Here is the input.
Amino acid sequence: MSRPENTDTVRQFTVGHDDEGVRLDRWFKRHLPQVGFAMVSRWARTGQLRVDGKRADVDTRLTAGQILRVPPGGEPKPGLGASRPRRELTEEEIERADAMVLTQDRAAIVLNKPPGLATQGGSGMKEHVDGLLDAYADKGPRPRLVHRLDKDTSGVLLVARTPGSAAFFSKRFSGRTAKKIYWALVVGVPSINDGMIELPIAKQPGTGGEKMHVDEKEGQTAKTRYRVLDRAGNRAAWVELHPLTGRTHQLRVHMAAIGHPIVGDGKYGGQEAFLSGTISRKMHLHARRLIIEHPDGAPLDVTAPLPEHFANSMESLGFDEADGAELPEGAPEFTKDDEKRAAKAHAKQYRKERRGERRSRRDGGSERPGSRGKPSGKAAGKPAGAKAGPRKAAGKPVAGKPAGVRKPSGPRKPGGAGGTGGGKPAGRPAGGGRPAGGGAPRGKR
Here is the structure.
């Protein structure tokens, strides 16, 4: 999109490919955020906004290549509505940002986030990925985060290069058509090699929202598919995790809840989460692979190599990365059901934005707060009277399966040691049974 600098004269913009199908008011929110919704509406009402020479309304849908005429005015007032100035990065920060890049194109930059680096800033948090995004901006728009990883979780992190691609990718994440595969080392060995954890999660009272727990009464639905790839006796297991929902700390809470906390996750596993010997005390959770639709058509499929501490622990425990061929080489098929789920989630988000807009107008606001882009969802639940999650495992090997875990109802292609074998699982079993080679830590009932 051409972007004239002088706001004292009539300006003309060419609608870019990323803005195909976007509403005119949303176009202003993306490219001229200093122009409030009230002013855009006034320009449209008085005929000053033109698309290919014709009058346009705020809800006009734009097409790539169209010429948008914008009248003069709409300069930001100091400290109000102005875009955030870019920060000058040091040479060391630029090198650090470049070292994280796995692949990039016109729509996306895919990073391999190291453990210990936060995705976004917070209280007392000075170093984070968001603070390094200016290194990828060049002369174009500043890239935008579209999802997050915990500070101590490493692996694939997708950054959108343009506002249009940010909207595209955000819709795929909220609609759950993006496929995320994590690797983790856990304490002990789950009694079911291939299972589904379905335990609702809510914020834990008294932690300021920084810690989650299982809350079957007030928690939000949370589902995690897992598969044991290999085991080191009864000491530890290497598992593949597929989060089917996107709750805060979901994988960490779920694995701790079934008695197998992620190695190094003291927050949810306590002292039991740390193994003796040469195993690092850092958290062993890695976003291994991401498969997501791309604006240009072909799905984006990226795999991130393991961080040093994780790779060393794998070697110490006798695990071979080659056994983790978690998916077929072919790209996933996005079914009609996937598309319906994505459309439903997008429509729900849009309705919430419209409610925010109506409240703003009723209260006399001039801008549309509903366009902030924050994902919404159900409330995390009331802390008062919340039902406590399952107790931690006592560590004694017994047969049976943990509460909240079941075998998946559909077929699954095995991969790696410790798989369940071919064929369709028989549905929800009455008991889990012992895995070959020894007992498992106590499950939850």
